[in-house]
Amino acid sequence: MSYRLGDLARHTGARLEGDPDRMIHGLNVLQAAGPGDISFLANRKYRKYLKATRASAVILGREFLAECPADALVSDNPYLVFARIADLMFPQAPVHAGRHPSAVIADSAQVDAGAWIGPGAILEDDARIGPRAYIGPGCVVGRGSRIGEDTRLVANVTLCHDVRIGRRVLVHPGAVIGSDGFGLANDGGMWVKVPQLGSVRIGDDVEIGANTTIDRGALKDTVIEDGVKLDNQIQVAHNVLIGAHTAVAACVGIAGSTRIGQRCTLAGGVGVVGHLEIADDVHFSAQTLVTRSHAQPGHFSGNLPAMPNRAWRKAIARIRQLEETEQRLRRLEKGAGPQPGERPDEE
Amino acid sequence: MSYRLGDLARHTGARLEGDPDRMIHGLNVLQAAGPGDISFLANRKYRKYLKATRASAVILGREFLAECPADALVSDNPYLVFARIADLMFPQAPVHAGRHPSAVIADSAQVDAGAWIGPGAILEDDARIGPRAYIGPGCVVGRGSRIGEDTRLVANVTLCHDVRIGRRVLVHPGAVIGSDGFGLANDGGMWVKVPQLGSVRIGDDVEIGANTTIDRGALKDTVIEDGVKLDNQIQVAHNVLIGAHTAVAACVGIAGSTRIGQRCTLAGGVGVVGHLEIADDVHFSAQTLVTRSHAQPGHFSGNLPAMPNRAWRKAIARIRQLEETEQRLRRLEKGAGPQPGERPDEE
Amino acid sequence: MSYRLGDLARHTGARLEGDPDRMIHGLNVLQAAGPGDISFLANRKYRKYLKATRASAVILGREFLAECPADALVSDNPYLVFARIADLMFPQAPVHAGRHPSAVIADSAQVDAGAWIGPGAILEDDARIGPRAYIGPGCVVGRGSRIGEDTRLVANVTLCHDVRIGRRVLVHPGAVIGSDGFGLANDGGMWVKVPQLGSVRIGDDVEIGANTTIDRGALKDTVIEDGVKLDNQIQVAHNVLIGAHTAVAACVGIAGSTRIGQRCTLAGGVGVVGHLEIADDVHFSAQTLVTRSHAQPGHFSGNLPAMPNRAWRKAIARIRQLEETEQRLRRLEKGAGPQPGERPDEE
Fold first, then answer.
1. Number of helical (H) and strand (E) elements in chain B, helices listed first
2. Chain B residues lying within 8 Å of C206, measured CB to CB
3. What is the ipTM of this complex?
């Protein structure tokens, strides 16, 4: 599918600098694009590729326009313009209605006539599948679970019983939704399982990454609000609530009963301990461990970035001595005579 | 199912404060409970909800009894009492014996007449399934694997060949047991695979979380002892041994040949390097990296909790300078004159 | 299968110290081996078991030969010798050609006559399966994906559409290859999905661990080069490139567009942020967070190993005060008089 550059500008609201009749046939990164391609500059790290790009047009911020050797779509948010153009040029194929003969569909399951149930998919009793939903190969939809319209389970997704998923949700392979929370009571050194009687509710327009796991609640539900985006290999424990439009990168773990606000971002590998309250618009850097509630928006960090191994060994040794260092410093402060600005009366 | 409060007290051994004939119909958290519900207070963070609860009865420690507006079940371990009541009121459904017609069962597999083999499940040659075992939809039980009585594989679980699983084990979706260990020998810069000839043995009353992986041993078996509880997304490498009644929270990784003692707890995100020996009753805080053996019980930690990003940037810069800081401190100690109690002979 | 020790020496290039006609029937670790077994010493931690071993032969470095109570195969790389002997004595069974009747194979899929398609496996349109490939139970091979000769998908593996996998690749259960990258553009606080139009290319002789996830590229492909070894539960984001013969341990996350060089090693739990360039022969310790590019080979670390909880609490408090500590030290330096070697002119 080809598009006039002027039409792409109109479709996205970007400002056109160049020939509105230039035809665009494809998308590519700056360094690989050729004639007929549109490209984009959204991360300064790739600015070095701009001058030599062979793209016919580039989406960029106005601060880079002077360096652009091609036609341009100028925007404050080039990545969003790129997303809209990619979506226009490569739209997702509509769902083909029907049921593969190898699918196993319980008699009591209710499947909308416009939904697709793929090969080897299994729908247990009372499962409900909405209009234009796509249940991919090998997916299991547990007893009583409901899936909203236009939602897609890509492949080998497992929904346990009584899970509710909204509309236009996209669930990637290997994700597990509604597994038991890790509820254990200790009885004299042995663990007794606490029945997990809640479930999981997922809003609209949510994306759930490959091999991500979301546990069902103990009594109340685990809740993922509208527009939340979860990357791969994330663990969401029982009774967690993730507020609308929060984005969570891969390998994050959120412990039980913690509530995360709206529009937060958790970078890769973040860990959040249980029973916390995180306000709206809080941002955590990669691999940060969150051990207390955060009532205010802000950006928080807590990792120790890579150092050369020898320097790191010394730093760790010094960290272990910090208490002793403090004592030495105090002795010096006591014994080293007056200090300007601190004990001026003694001068 | 409804219960007299007096019967619940007797069933759990809790002390009743209130009307033994009060009828209990449901369970809920303090802030959502209504008449007819029993609730519980096991974490001080939720004490704030006690005074206003509408529950008919609350399970709690005696220190909170004075604040309780309802009947009470008093116990030193309210969470355990809650677990027993939840189990009584919402018992797990018994396994329905049989085989779904879509299951693929090798001729040489031995399946107890009381077991259930679900839709799309696959039992390879010589698999053995015990009484009342539940093999959920999409599960694969590899060649020669054995599953004990009352054990449940929820859905889409994969057991590789020759894995042995005990009784009353619960395995959540997406778990993989018996995959090859990561055994590699280096041959001039290229990696040569080391065959993984051991297997995995799992005791009784073990729980294994969603998408958790347990590798088979290289020569000996990987061993999970009785009563171990593993949360979601845990990685257990080859030849690890996890001692009885140890509980491991989500996102933990345990490297090869490490032995963990009994009744240990590993909080979320802990990493344990290989070839270590961890004693019984050792506890690790969230995201701690364990780099040496621990011969004694205790509580160990090693993370850097979240700070405001600007403060963190400064702290990291200072950590990188600690060696220099030490040198500066030494110079001061040398040159700043006598210090009380340290070099008194020089005074 | 039994082997003469002399033949094992010749097969592996190790130097024989002992009886070339001794027969070897099995492999075991030093502490469990008995007569007829060969064992090995590749990690000094197990040296303590050498003297009392009952093995008939031991593979070891010459520095341990004097302590060896049995015949020996002497090598600079005992683990490699062990790998070759294990492979010789316990060769992988050849693939049995055919298709299980429960497999679902699209009419347009091309399956080599020598490949095996297991029970419940699903091949979508235009999938291509090479000679002697093994598609295990429950695997999904998406539309247009290609699998090279002698490649094995063990069980419940998911390949999304248009993924290319080379020869002799081994993919463990639950792995997901070709899921959408986490591409999101922000539109006034809401996230807009960026279509992921690239795919994944995997070279020859790659191993991919259980529940590992590899996302497809946004425009270009995510690339795993020849001989790369990935352990379990690793996350590889879109457009990452991992160079040949790099080994990545479990629970590592690599963020988008990062390029890792050849022959690198990433220990367990490492996190690498996006858009970095890591040179060849770079090594990262367990749980290290990599936040910048590395242009030179080397060994880098960045974690805070476990300490007793009380010592750790104090260390963290001191770390939070480091800025203040610095100010105190500066005041001392200013006010404490001349310091030898620093300001000698003032003495």
1. 4, 39
2. none
3. 0.94
